[in-house]
Amino acid sequence: MTSAVSSAKNYYGNVNPELLERIPLSAQRVLEIGCGQGRLGEAFKSRQPKVQYFGVELMPQEAKLAQGVLAGVLCADIEQNTSLPQEFLQAAEKFDALVFGDVLEHLRDPWRVLSDLRNLMTPDGTCVACVPNVGHWSLVRQLLSGRWDYADSGLLDRTHVRFFTLETAVEMFQKAGWRVTDASPRNLWPEKTEQAIKDLLPLASALNISPDKMRRDLSALQWVIRAQNTGAVAAPKPKHDAPLCVAALGLKKFAGVTEARVDHPLSALNSLPGVRCVWGAGGLQLPAGFGPGIMMLHRQFMNVPAFNEKMEQLVKSGWLLVADIDDDPHHWPQFVDSDFYAYRAVHAVTVSSEHLANMLRQWNPHVAVFPNAMMSLPYKLKDAPKVQGESSSLRVFFGALNRKADWTTIMQGVNQAAEQLLQQHVHAQLHFEVVHDKEFFDSLPLGCSKSFHPTLNHADYMQVLSTCDVALLPLNDTAFNRCKSDIKLIECGACAVAPICSPVVYGLEPAHQAFAKFASHADEWRDALLFYAANSQALKESQQAALSYVANQRMHSQQVILRQAYYSQLMANREALEADRQLRLKNSAKAFNPL
Predict the structure, then answer these.
(1) Could you tell me the CA-to-CA distances from 251 to 165, 200, 254, 259, 538 in Å, in that order?
(2) What does pTM read for this prediction?
(3) What is the pLDDT of residue 227?
(4) Which domains are seen in the chain, by residue range?
């Protein structure tokens, strides 16, 4: 492998987000060729904490940095040395995923490397590679101008040895015994690209090339290609099974609700070869040729005739409707007034808890539980320890929507803790980070250290949460609250924040006892805050236990195969599910007319 020297800022420390999204989250053992400083592996580990991620890197200095991040790193030229050290091959286990980020174009014989490394893969292992596109409009323009100018970085990096179009890249994988499953374009300059295509597209007619194909080939700066091991030395003729297609319509983005139930689970599912997912918030456009498959409807009331007509048309064309809900549907009159038509008129329902599942089964027997989970762990938290000795403050987080009835019952205890620490001038006082709820913020005592943030998007919310030590999660024991999920506690764990919470919902899972402090009365909330303020070691232990719980039990990477199997089973049982749906609507005592 030739040296890939580049003037690009932190070339070896970059993370290609499109490449990251295409590595299957089900992978347990990953081998990356050209791992640089290990940052892609680090980012993937934040999504799949249980993965064993290994790397091969040519540059000694970068390989040394990667060794502090990955399970094992071999500093070698992969073209000269395809024999991996024993630590890479524990108990003769093979790899589920093979990753090439900006590497294949630097190899003298990428065909042989792809073929040789296939022997280290499981029979259905996946290769994910980012390959520069020599047909990009910027190079076409150069050629038409009579130029081919090498540079220190980019498509004509002077260290590139091989050049590929999408078709020739696919042929390379096929000759090496891989079956290409999909290819996604990277377009980093959409405005420039659109103008260039406008200039060059008239050539399509003169050259008898499909305009759609020319647009595709000109716009892709790079291709992220996925291929699966054929499981044999010589590639047999592949059987092209139709992909599982899943589409989802969520609410308009607000305070992380849609991310938890739509964006994150479908992003996880979309990482699997053989699955295609599209989703939208407040609207959805299906790509040409997409489906039929699963249409997930997150919190959709289905009380608008035109919308329901579209759903019925989808059903007639082979789609399955799956409603998703993670709150008590009785809270919304639109559900109640239609006699919960939104759950009767779909083939199946997914929910976030068993309690909610038992409620939904009165309207639809086909209910599955997918607990809320995390897409990734914030792998870059505060650099400094959260408890820093005598000058530190205990940073307390509160951030929830419409919880005034819940927090008013604990406010006396919270304020007593803050005032007591202020009066005693002890080494660990309280600082509050409050998101969204200005009334809670204003109810904190005068002189208390505090910061307020308006309603945040999910990423910013998690960033603020990750700077804190403990979080307050109050819930009164009401019918509405009992239908809630434990997502707030899971978010705390992902950020290594110790939750102080009500036993309602949060106390149902026995594993939560290891890291959560439960409080029912105001004085118990006070005592919990005072305890953590005075016991830094206990705080650290609770934080680490919370993080460990989420990493080991509540990640989408641990659900993704189950979700794929569930949707596939629904599609396999489509005829029976449709018959049930029709009977359910016919027998509904107060059937809501969908048309």
Answers:
(1) 39, 39, 8, 10, 40
(2) 0.89
(3) 96
(4) 14-229 (3.40.50.150), 244-374+562-587 (3.40.50.2000), 393-553 (3.40.50.2000)
